[in-house]
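Hey, can you fold this one?
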Amino acid sequence: MSKASMRNGPSAAAILAAGIGLAVTGIVSAAAEAISEWSAMLVWSKPVGALSGKTTIGIAAWLVSWLVLGLLWKDREVRFGQILVISAALLAVGLLLTFPPVFELIAGG
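Sure. Predicted structure:
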């Protein structure tokens, strides 16, 4: 493949999908702390507790978004700088929402 025919779409899809997966994990984690019924629904493995559902949903979001974006962007050149900024913001959201003082504030505790 020549340098002229290379596209950054697949790389951008992987990076953005990682950000989406992290943000979804954070959102699901914060929601589980705020809504006890939701937390109980996320217990897919008793020894692991709600963490099993939280991480599985985050991983599913990552894989599905990577698949969809990868197919949409496989032959495209995208604005890589914007993708990096958006991915970094999603990463920050995901990390903040899994940080106990933040999710406890959201849960009202």
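Residues 67 and 83 are 16 Å apart (CA to CA). Let me know if you want another pass with a different chain boundary.
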